Amino acid sequence: MDAGVKEPPIPETDQHILAEKKIFQQLQHHFAAQYEAVFPNRLAPKTIVVIPSLTLDQEILCKIDGIVLYEERLLCLLLLLRMPRTHIVYVTSTPIDPVIIDYYLHLLPGITGHHAIQRLHLLSCYDASPISLTEKILARPRLMRRIKNAIPADNIAHLSCFNVTEHERKLAVTLGLPIYGCDPDLFFWGTKSGSREIFRECGLDMPPGFENLENENDIIVSLARLKKENPALKRAVIKMNDGFSGEGNAVFSYEDFDAAVTENELRQALPQRLKIVAKDLSYKTFIKKFEQMGGIVEAFIEGKEIASPSVQCRINPLGKVDIISTHDQIIGGESDQVFLGATFPAHTAYSRTVGHMGRKVAAALRKRGVLGRFGLDFLSVRENDTWIHYAIEINLRKGGTTHPYIMLQFLTEGDYDAESGKYFTAGGDERFYMATDNFQEDCFKGLTPHDLMDIAMLHGLHFNSTKEEGVMFHLIGALSQYGKLGLVCIGDSPERARFFYDETLKVLRGECGWQNR
After folding, report:
1. Residue 390 β-bridge partners
2. What share of the chain is helix, strand, coil (3-state, %, to 5)?
3. Which architecture, in CATH terms, is 19-181?
4. What's the pLDDT score for residue 516?
């Protein structure tokens, strides 16, 4: 810059953000030493502040029945109270029924409910409005003071969040607590476009496609190019960069179009042919959201036998990579784009293979400074006796397979062995489960948490700590209004886990008089 010419001043808002980022980085830097000193010691005094906020696009989120009650999914972390000097501060948009809390505390091994409840601090915003929980907390200074006051003076504390955005970063700085999660400045690597760049770097197969698209015209150009380069292609998937559970996806059919299809033909056909996954989301709104987030277009993978395995990884504050679990996802909805549940572990034919791929991706993310849990999704096609795995996306957050696995691990004190692709309890026994967030029937509506507990006790639908198998419920608060419930059905074989699932469905339908409807 020429001598005597002053640089323009940094706007006050930008100065504030830069200061906030600096403080956050300092908090995260000190977290590594805290982690090393405290986490291995079950008797160390520590506090986990759980913020189960789904800080994602609220217009798409609101299409999911009972979405505010998905904050109950991380109640599995209440099982950390089995460590006798650990405190949990759990914050939600609306209060949680005490019956649900009692249900979780009853499962604690070696700890009385009375002892645990003294170390559990439940706080609520009393606000069911369609904005994220974290934003609600930030708008309530007195609530933030109550969070800080709930942390004992001698405890080391951190935040545990579903995902981390600039809102969670602001909350962390305000509370003076680190987050066991990824810096939001690294958010791009958890988008659909960022995922494809990581997969390409790691040498993984992925569907033919194009990333870093910005608008409707980019979609049309990409659709035309994709068909030209893949003449036999029948369908393509358009995905928003920050979509979740398939709700930001749409499927386009090339029916009656050949490889010479023009951009003008596609422009005319797109509004009519695009099948949008999120219910009641118009074409105009979908395109507007796409332009806000950006996204990708890629080939729709076809095949006679298709699986949807996922890998859950963790990078701890010391930089250690763990392959936590593998699952086979249960997919449904529009063109099989929506996550409905999962079976654990993934099929033995490929669980170790996708685990190794997950480790490659984790190494690439660790180099970029990623911290915490993340998921990696595949679409796998069987060709003769060989499975071909296409990497689909990275989710730098907790996900639909996080809480079922945490429940299994905390209840059985076991671990997943990535080399064998098997899970073993503390006693060396194998365990399997079938889990879902979408156990939903209209006839379940009207059942209260109290009713569910009565039914579960009457029919033995509970987790048996002696046999280390049975049924765990979650999303209990969504049952009465939405007829929706979450299940984790644990067994000593896949067939046993499926038996518990089918039996639970049969019992609940019977209790609701479903057979007479």
Report:
1. 379
2. 40, 25, 35
3. 3-Layer(aba) Sandwich (3.40)
4. 44
